[in-house]
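Posting here for the record, re: magnesium ion.
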Amino acid sequence: MWTKDSKNDSGKPNLDAEQLSKLQDRNKLLDILENQGQQIVVVGDTSSGKSTTINFLLGYPFNFVAQGIGTRRPCVMTLTPDPEREKVLFRTKFQKNDYTKEEDFTSLADVANLVRNVNDPRAHPEWFDCLNLDRDAYRGQSMVRPDDAFDETPVYVQLLHKEIDCPMRLVDVPGLSRGNRLTTRIALSFIKPDNAVILVIGKDHPNNGGFPHLAAAMRECSRTIVVQNFANTKIQDNQVSENYSALYEKMSGRTDLVLYCIDYGLPYEPGLPLWQEGYDQQDWHKINKEQGLQSVRRAMVQHTEMRAKQLQERFKDSQVFSNVIVPGIDLAGASGRDDSGMT
Ligand SMILES: Nc1nc2c(ncn2[C@@H]2O[C@H](COP(=O)(O)OP(=O)(O)O)[C@@H](O)[C@H]2O)c(=O)[nH]1
Ligand SMILES: [Mg+2]
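Prediction output follows.
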């Protein structure tokens, strides 16, 4: 993973047979054959920046999630090296009750379309168990409105390409939404000792957000990272320290707790008035189109490094940074360094 301490990890699969079978039990669809290694689960409140974080970790602008309906079921994203594959291929899989669909795409827009579709409880109530009260788990419970519907069954998106050097699997989990117990239940179901867990904290105050609850569950996990997103504002109003204290308490004083502060900046959008060159996010899709996968990954790593430096510079006279609250996450550790020719 990407913390300073874990740089020495091989990043290779480390699930033993028993763990694998547990995973398989919990989720029959898991693409075990691939065995891409320990999966990384990203949890947090709604709009805290989970999807953005996933894009940066993968080094690929998947980003289908921010728009429209949102993430209403887990999305398992896998990067798979494939020496034969000159052009990016997306292999998708969705299996719900009696419905099964496996489809290959070459365009991200088509994948986005599929993801949108399986996340749409109005168009497809049959794919949301909570809307079908005859399902065992929901029998006898009260009616859920489509707007409040979430589901535990993931959709799978696998990206295959020859330039992928590090297999990786990330799970985007629906954000906690206030008063919706289903979202918490789904998030908690992924916070398992077998999984690496990333908790992304956004603008929510610990008294309002659901993240302290998730942090408590993360005590059982040996590999966890906590990311404070929107750090510019959160450091400025000193909520970052409050957040740290809340987490520390919920995690029973785990001594290895580090809060990684990041602020990705505005996503690129043509004509967006507030967008600033050299500060906010670039047009990743354009870079991908013009220069290829590796360039995107490099640019995304450089972006987080730049943003971390800006944070450090901006708050250098404040007392906020200590060895437990640090500016930036090191995205380069896993494979970015190799790409940039620094090794
Ligand atoms: N300005 C700014 N916007 C961000 C940042 N992180 C995420 N966003 C935007 O905030 C919105 C929510 O982020 P997203 O990653 O979709 O959050 P999620 O709901 O947790 O998956 C999106 O429009 C992002 O582009 C950030 O650090 N700064
Ligand atoms: Mg999201």
